[in-house]
Here is the input.
Amino acid sequence: MTVESTGGECPLCGGEGRFAYEGTDQLLGREGSYRYLNCRSCGAVFLSPMPDAQTISSFYPDEYLDHDQSPQAKSPGRVRKAVLAGRYGYPLKEISPLGKGWGRVAGTFMYRDEIAWRGGGQALDVGCGNGKFVQKLASLGWQACGVEFSESAAQAGRDSGLQIHTGDLKSAAYADDRFHLVSARHLIEHLPDPPTFMAEIYRVTVPGGRLVIRTPNSKALGRGWFGANWYANDPPRHLVMYSADNLSQLAINAGFVPVLTRAFTSPKIILNSWDYQKGNAGKPSRKKKLWRLVARLYVLFASLTGRGDELFAVYEKPR
Here is the structure.
């Protein structure tokens, strides 16, 4: 493939892109290489040329969509429940006033990516897979449902009694101002037209409702270190990579108001990146105790510098 210095139109702002890197599908071994550009205007990193819907669908073989089993959401432990009740407002009767007080304190440094209680209203998880997160939300008191494009995954959730629509968000045709909470967890980086997606979320969210997004952080320390071998690049499935700034601008352009953005990470991403870099075909580094311990130092440093591998962002629709 010939590498061009510029070209391609940014799917976020329409700006011109310049060459960022060229990567291969190290996760599934798909043949070929994929060129990514960096937008000169907003800084988004995007696949160029942007593939059509049929080609995008081919990026997801059955082995990637291995989530057609019944969802098994874990029940939160006592500490997590205390944080949920004390810091995030969940009405958990088993947590005492003292426990809530302790949870408020603990929540300043633990479970900082939980979703605040919004009165047990309607919740939607877009790209929900087999509905594991839908099940979790329902167990905490939300009236939860989901949207998933994989029929086998959606059916697995429905077989467990969950309400899951097969298709994309637009095809679900939800009413205006329906949901008090919409979550899109590791989804938006897979979409070729983020502004249209964000506008549809805004339409179905009630005034005062919130949108929660999780997505890889294009400004991550690990991406700076490993470049094309950064595990969270995941070419060609990740079509657009975001920074905290351009993700917030995308939400603002749709009408949302930013509430908070944080960057998190885990040993898994950095250790998988190391394996990609070194071509390790043996036992994964993430399964080696010593390597996991060393990776904790990276997690600490990336967290302190605000350059973790994953963005957690919350936005609100104005009342």
